[in-house]
Amino acid sequence: MSSEEIIVPEDAIIFCDELVKIYLSDELKVMALQGLDLTVKKGELMAIIGKSGSGKSTLLNMIGGLETPTTGHIFVNGKELSLLKEKDMVKYRKSEVGFVWQNSARNLFPYMKVVENVMTPMYFGRMSQKKRRERAMELLTKVGMDKHADKFPGQLSGGEQQRVGIAVALANSPSILLADEPTGAVDTKTSNMIFDVFRKLNRELGITIIIVTHDMRLANMVDRTVMISDGKISTEKIRRETLTDDAIAGFSTDREDETAHEEYSVLDKAHRIQLTDDVLERAGIDTNRVRVEVVDGKVIIQKE
Ligand code: ADP
Ligand code: MG
Fold first, then answer.
1. Cα 299 to ligand 2 centre (Å)
2. What is the three-class DSSP state of 166?
3. In this structure, what DSSP letter does residue 82 have?
4. Residue with CA closest to ligand 1 atom 17
5. pLDDT per residue as tens digits for the range 258-286
6. Angle (CA) 36 251 200, round 5°
7. Which ligand is nearest to the CA of 56?
8. Among residues 236, 180, 178, 176, which one has the least CA distance to residue 55?
């Protein structure tokens, strides 16, 4: 299909259409993404959750323009990434998306002060040194790190380094922030604090944020969570809007979890649905054949 025939939803900032990624390593073929569809609306705060090896980083790197799909299309802000010229791609990576990595060493230069770290990506633009420093201080204030501006990354805790990393990612005012396991290396309390920063930035700047994590509990902290398994989106959880932010702040128990979220399964273009291991187990389905019936307008899937 040529990209002219793909209709991108009007309110979508990111639109992934049937993404396939095949890695060839030695004689092995790994299909990291298997026809993945995803639409992200402008201003969303969402999480992508899935086991290790399910294709989360591959997807995020593709949205960030660091990898290209084997087949399929990605549109960001109405532009198809694979059609961008090299020069525009460089610009895209530097100023339309910001990356936060799990490993804070990847986000920060250890030999530069905190404020200089935040100023560095701005050298791509045409700002004066004074303006750059002012903007870096503004961003550090936003993430609550302005008091540490003159320290070196090594003098900060893991959580503080991550907050500086977020300020670095925001340096060129991207419209999308991509975070790959940003709380993977910190404790629960610090992880909550980092999520609070994301929520604040999302609310105050209206920036679209996608956070990749393997921590299912973090679903409580965002508007929408999509679950990726075997390179496809299987289910999605949407936070009910009737709940106040305070009611969902922090980690809740499993029961509260259910009241705060509605979980949906996702049908792909061929109307296929993926049943999670948990669902199969709860329904006692242990064979590869099931009985499907429609009863009173409901689809019942049960053990044959
Ligand atoms: P996740 O981030 O969910 O852990 P990844 O996107 O990193 O998953 O990887 C998905 C699959 O693709 C895994 O099986 C992984 O081993 C494989 N993979 C990822 N990157 C490469 C690569 N550069 N070369 C070969 N295989 C890769
Ligand atoms: Mg990963």
1. 35
2. helix
3. G
4. 32
5. 446 677 777 877 778 878 788 888 889 98
6. 75
7. 1
8. 180
